[in-house]
Specification:
Blueprint lengths: L4 E3 L3 E3 L3 E2 L6 E7 L6 E4 H9 L7 H9 L3 E3 L4 H15 L2 E6 L23 H16 L5 E6 L8 H17 L3 E7 L7 H11 L1 E7 L4 H7 L9 H14 L3 E8 L7 H10 L6 E7 L14 H18 L22 E3 L5 E2 L41 H6 L1 H6 L4 H4 L4 H4 L4 H5 L8 H19 L1
Parallel strand pairs: 7-8, 7-13, 8-9, 9-10, 10-11, 11-12
Antiparallel strand pairs: 1-6, 2-4, 3-4, 4-5, 13-14
Helix pairs in contact: 4-5, 6-8, 9-10, 10-16
The structure holds iron/sulfur cluster (2 copies).
One iron/sulfur cluster binds next to helix 15.
Length: about 450
């Protein structure tokens, strides 16, 4: 039986580590197919690598099988991973739809690729959107509707949110589905009163806002259309919303070469404000958003090494830190069956990064060409009818492309189960979007081991 097992190709390990207190020597083994790390002593690890499984106790072998460190010898793991991903997409019973109620934003961030205008989603287009949701929910394949409110700045379209959100909630209820929502906001309008409204009337449980450092760094990157800084207003809102409401708060920090030194001070200030256990914090490298914003990016290795230090600092200060990426079967909304982003003009997309970006042409090359409302939605139907060659379909068919031999870097990558390919649009545009965890996974596992030792 043991000869029918092999070491999975989807494994990352820590360095060889030792625990001074117990004398343990071994590694953290991270099978990305299960995302369940195991701490394994060095002798056992060598036996696993050598295939000397007979020398291991049966319960240890069983544990390794369950964690997918050991897999059937004849399994094509790549095909299995991609098939699981495709099955998860097929079986997904949460309908996720993104609305951009407004094309306006108060900010003029240096890295933003969008062009903003004072345009709000009209009532006719709201009704068309609701009809499409009705058809999708009525197909019976969904048990839940989730709305993502996205920008430009969605809170500048609060009137639309009030009308459309209430109708979407009523629709979900009528069709026997649950309802939830989240919002990505610049944080300027996120006062405690608005946060309470989002929670109580819009069923929005989570808000993500952006802080790119303390005032000097943040205001250099995220300034208003009239050139004023925005840090003070956003940080004050963050503090008061955290104190006055239960809204889950996520802080994103975009990092380039110039603000990298300001990330640690920002983390410290958030902790000093008593928010370490109240918010979630993550960093993201600036990237090309239909523009050349990536010109100021840190190189990937440098970002990945800095990120480990920021993670360690957060752990020291009491933040909840996600060191290990979970299994990611659905890479993003673009591969979902009936993904839709509707912008303030009523145009539809299957990717949140493309609306309002002039670099994608006029009309936008990523727009879903066939009006979604004209596609008969039924169980088993595809959203993206028409040519497979449209950019929207290219994104949508990412997993099929993997199986057909495209994206060879992903096909040979041990992070595929937890990464999923990261961003189909980036691959379509010729950029490898590998997340920092591909580079710093070993250090993350080292950190996990150190944290476990401290806890023990
Ligand atoms: S394709 Fe990329 S940018 Fe578009 S939604 Fe997916 S992850 Fe985001
Ligand atoms: S995007 Fe990069 S890290 Fe992710 S699976 Fe593909 S090659 Fe691996």
């Amino acid at each position: 039986m043991l000869t029918s097992l092999k070491l999975s190709r989807y494994i990352v390990t820590s360095d060889l580590l030792s625990a001074a207190r117990t004398g343990f020597q071994g590694r953290v083994v991270f099978p990305t197919r299960s995302s369940s790390p195991l701490t394994v002593d060095e002798l056992t690890w060598r036996r696993i690598q050598d295939g000397a499984l007979d020398a291991l106790p049966p319960n240890a072998v069983q544990r390794l099988i369950e964690a997918k460190v050991l897999v059937p010898a004849d399994e094509d793991e790549f095909a299995a991973v991609v098939s699981e991903n495709m099955a998860a997409i097929e079986q997904q019973d949460v309908l996720y739809q993104v609305v951009q109620p407004s094309a306006w934003c108060q900010l003029d961030c240096s890295y933003c690729g969008q062009e903003h205008s004072k345009k709000w989603l009209g009532e006719e287009q709201q009704e068309e959107f609701l009809q499409r949701i009705r058809a999708r929910l009525a197909s019976g394949r969904y048990r839940h509707l989730k709305i993502g409110w996205f920008g430009a700045e969605p809170l500048t379209g609060l009137t639309v949110m009030r009308r459309l959100g209430a109708s979407a909630q009523a629709l979900a209820k009528e069709l026997g589905c649950g309802y939830s929502a989240r919002i990505i906001s610049n944080g300027i309008g996120l006062t405690p009163a608005i946060a309470r409204e989002l929670l109580e009337q819009h069923c929005i449980s989570e808000a993500e806002i952006t802080l790119d450092g303390l005032a000097a760094d943040h205001d250099r990157l995220r300034f208003t259309k009239t050139g004023k800084g925005s840090f003070r207003k956003i940080f004050d809102n963050l503090r008061s919303v955290a104190a006055a409401t239960e809204l889950k708060l996520v802080i994103r920090c975009n990092v380039d070469r110039l603000n990298a030194d300001g990330v640690a001070p920002l983390i410290e200030q958030i902790a000093q404000a008593g928010l370490a256990q109240r918010v979630q914090f993550y960093t993201s490298p600036v990237y090309a958003w239909g523009n050349d914003a990536d010109q100021t990016a840190l190189d990937r290795e440098e970002f990945a090494q800095c990120e480990v230090e920021w993670l360690a600092l957060q752990m020291r200060l009491g933040f909840q830190v996600g060191l290990l990426p979970p299994r990611r079967k659905i890479v993003c909304m673009s591969v979902q069956r009936e993904a839709e982003v509707v912008d303030a003009y009523g145009a539809t997309f299957n990717c949140t990064e493309v609306p309002y970006v002039p670099a994608y042409g006029q009309p936008n090359s990523y727009e879903i060409r066939i009006p979604v409302s004209s596609i008969k939605v039924r169980s088993g139907a595809k959203l993206h009818a028409g040519s497979n060659e449209t950019p929207a379909n290219k994104l949508h068919n990412f997993n099929q492309q993997l199986l057909q031999g495209e994206h060879l870097q992903c096909a040979s990558c041990n992070m595929l189960p937890v990464c999923g390919g990261q961003c189909p649009k980036s691959w379509h545009e010729g950029h490898a979007p590998c997340p920092s965890a591909k580079i710093n996974m070993k250090e993350r596992l080292n950190l996990l081991f150190a944290a476990d030792q401290m806890t023990e």
